[in-house]
Design brief:
- The complex is a heterodimer of chains A (about 400) and B (about 250).
- Chain A is built from 15 helices and 14 strands.
- Chain A has about 400 residues and is of the alpha/beta class.
- In chain A, the strands form four sheets. In chain A, strands 3-4-14-9-10-13 form a six-stranded mixed beta sheet, sandwiched between helices. In chain A, strands 7-6-5-8 form a four-stranded parallel beta sheet, sandwiched between helices.
- The longest helix of chain A has 24 residues.
- Chain A is globular, with a radius of gyration of 19 Å.
- Chain B has a single domain, classed as Alpha-Beta Barrel (TIM Barrel), CATH 3.20.20.
- Helices cover about 50% and strands about 10% of the residues of chain B.
- In chain B, strands 5-4-3-2-1-7-6 form a seven-stranded parallel beta sheet.
- In chain B, helix 2 crosses helix 4.
- The relative contact order of chain B is 0.19.
- The chains are: A alpha/beta (about 400), B alpha/beta (about 250).
Amino acid sequence: MDVPTPGRFGPYGGRYVPETLMAALEELDRVHEAAKRDPTFWAELEALLKDYVGRPTPLTEAPRLAAETGAGVVVALKREDLNHTGAHKINNTLGQALLARRMEKRRIIAETGAGQHGVATATVCARFGLECVVYMGEEDMRRQRLNVYRMELMGARVVPVTSGTRTLKDATNEALRDWVTNVTTTHYIIGSVVGPDPFPRIVRDFQSVIGREARAQVLERWGRLPHTVIACVGGGSNAMGIFSAFLDDSAVALVGVEAAGEGLATGRHAASLGRGRPGVFHGSLSYLLQNADGQVQPAHSVSAGLDYPGVGPEHAFLKDSGRVLYEAVTDRQALDAFAALSRLEGILPALESAHAVAWVLAHRGAWRAEDIVLVNLSGRGDKDVAMVAELTGGAT
Amino acid sequence: MSEHPIAARWRAIRGGGRGGRGAPAGAGRAALIPYLTAGFPTPALSLEALRRVAAAGADFVEVGVPFSDPLADGPTIQRSIQTALDQGMTLPGVLDLIRRAALEVPVIIMTYLNPVMAFGLERFVGEAAAAGASGLLLTDLPAGADQTVESLVAASPLALIRLIAPTTTPERLARAVQGAPLPLAVGFGIGTAAQARAAARLADGVVVGSAIIDALGAAGTSGGPGAAERLVRELAAAVHEQGATA
């Protein structure tokens, strides 16, 4: 969707960064705009998405989940979990690695929470022979040992972040500090539709392949558009990726599902859109979990990928405009949905994606026969199995 | 309209017109600009440190308003900010500190946009000026980033201090200074008298932050302000000899 001010989505977005980064953001913007118009860029990206990532990802009908949802309702899952590295994150890291190469920057940095974006960044750096440094909160490193090892196997250096809450928000601060110091040699591959302009647009553009494929697949199979499209929202990249293709289809309901954690009333949640208010954080103006003094509040979610106090500025705009409905489901609902999808369809969803499934289960009876409910299954749940077992008392 | 306190101070230091690199060589000395995180190491010691540092030869003082995510600051200042937040320092608390310190040198408030937005920008510029602040430096507000904020500060008694970086393009530099021969202070990574002396040869002013915070924090709880005062005295001697003898 085009917006009047460059880099802004209504009032949201912008470039609220130290001056040191401004030249790099301007360069990135130019290179991205030039690449968008360059057929050779797309040819290379599309070939890699096909042969390296495994796109297009399938659209899988989920009949037993559908039967739980309502008589005659069609539930379709966009299978981003089947991408190489197990999530949608690689759509973005691959595109940005190609941009970094155009800028002749051979050092890549990234932040990661659960490790999925870090793994996707380490993967493309290995593929292109780029130096890779990933910032990860010490607390997250402890919880996600396996992903740390995966990144190291692919040649990345994982730097523990010990400041603040030792999680994703602090890892992002540290990555931005590295970028301020090394900006002339380094590209920062940010992992979601957050950060200063042009990152929210770049990440959306690279993730929009999800929506383009899904819309065409639904039309080809059923000859009509979905009734509702549902995606989980942390920073919001998988949601922007699938929503972007449907924004102009006014009959299609779009639902973003945030993490309500232990419950919105407890204060221990990650519902930036549901419970935050506008603020400037990590380079852009958007909804933000903050206290009355403007200090950023720690987020909470059972899913590390949603455990972020900010959210992409385009989501803030889509919330205010009413085009997208943003709701939240609790840790408990997400864990139940994780179990339900595993049992009903033989698909283990990432806990992040389980939030989208949980919203569908919470709205049984809301659809009529023949309605198509499209869920973005943004990642696979293998990374979460040990923790789910621990939380639910299963075997480890 | 009377001269802005910051401009008046520069004129007194550098001599001549508005100072700045356009000023005649040897027209005056260079300025020392210490940075202190408000509320560090404790609110009471922070007040004492402000007064002693200002009296030890500072020409301006930068007072940092703590923000939970100080992505433009290095580890030393980050830790001081966290310590200040842990002790409950807030933006109204910082303004109260500035008011009580009643420094004779101009005070520049340095912070990030979000705590100021949460307080209310319009209310902030008014109350900050009333508390005795003369300038505002927002590390995450590069020139042109937000016309609303920039116009509001421009219309207020607070001078909006700009940052430029080695990566700043000529176009952005022109935008930041808007044609005026503004005084130029150098900062980041300057901590010793020798470094300060070298920087003072090139710039109108020298900003020192982390080294002062280190001195404040390292000297035990009550010895901090004294240690910071000694360091500032030493830095001031180094900075002030530049220009005066040229």
